[in-house]
Write a structure and sequence with these properties.
Elements (H helix, E strand, L loop, with lengths): L1 H16 L8 H21 L31 E4 L2 E3 L2 E10 L2 E6 L10 E3 L4 E7 L7 E8 L17 E4 L6 E4 L2 E7 L6 E11 L5 E11 L1
Parallel strand pairs: 5-12
Antiparallel strand pairs: 1-2, 1-6, 3-4, 3-12, 6-10, 7-8, 7-11, 9-10, 11-12
Helix pairs in contact: 1-2
């Protein structure tokens, strides 16, 4: 078997190099033959054996549906002040419809705000985003006058919020099996009608953001 390989390799060298191999010392030819054999063996060993099923491509499978980051659009908010429910609105979002496409959308202008609910000083406002169990990379609350969200077109300049906080403290932002929670104590809110603007952004597992509006009336 080895002799046959040697003869085959020598024939290959003669065909590849032509007359240049004729007249070379036997020791040199032996070295060239050995190199040719080694290269051929190395080449055969470097080719992996891959089962045909490895190359089969099927439709994309949503790996995260029902696992803490639902596809389609952000969930509607659940808001309360103390034990009383408050009405909230999902106003704008950038969200993955499936693993391969992200959609940016909003509810139009002016946003159809629900009626403002009474909010008393010192009450704790809780907002829950049900079904999203990944900690957001950003969570902010701005309190702006309600009149900012009326009129035929959005104002050219954003209003100055009277409150602008980031939910950095653990007690203000938490995530459990039921969703993502934000808490804010309504201390020092002047009388009038306001909109609580909650903005959340997630970088993982796919990424997205959502803006929720909660109209309130402070007394």
């Amino acid at each position: 078997m080895a002799l046959a390989l040697m003869r085959g390799a020598a024939l290959f060298l003669r065909r590849a190099l032509g007359a240049s191999v004729v007249g070379l010392p036997a020791s040199v030819v032996s070295v060239l033959v050995a190199m040719a054999l080694a290269g051929g063996c190395a080449g055969r060993e470097s080719v992996p054996t891959v089962p045909p099923s490895y190359f089969e491509v099927g439709p994309p499978v949503p790996p995260l549906r029902g696992e803490g980051f639902p596809f389609g659009r952000p969930p509607a908010p659940e808001v309360s002040a103390g034990e009383r429910p408050l009405a909230g609105l999902l106003a704008a979002w950038t969200w993955p419809e499936d693993p391969n496409r992200t959609v940016m959308a909003d509810v139009g202008w002016p946003p159809p705000l629900p009626p403002a609910a009474r909010l008393f000083a010192g009450e704790t406002v809780r907002l829950r985003v049900p079904g999203v169990t990944f900690r957001p990379s950003e969570a902010r609350l701005q309190v702006v006058p309600r009149f900012h969200y009326v009129g035929g077109a959005p104002p050219r300049r954003a209003p100055e919020p009277i409150t602008d906080i980031s939910f950095d403290a653990v007690r203000q932002l938490r995530v459990d099996r039921s969703g993502t929670w934000l808490e804010w104590e309504a201390d020092g809110l002047p009388p009038g009608e306001w909109v609580l603007v909650f903005h959340l952004r997630w970088d993982a597992p796919i990424g997205g953001d959502a803006t929720y509006l909660v109209p309130v009336r402070a007394r």
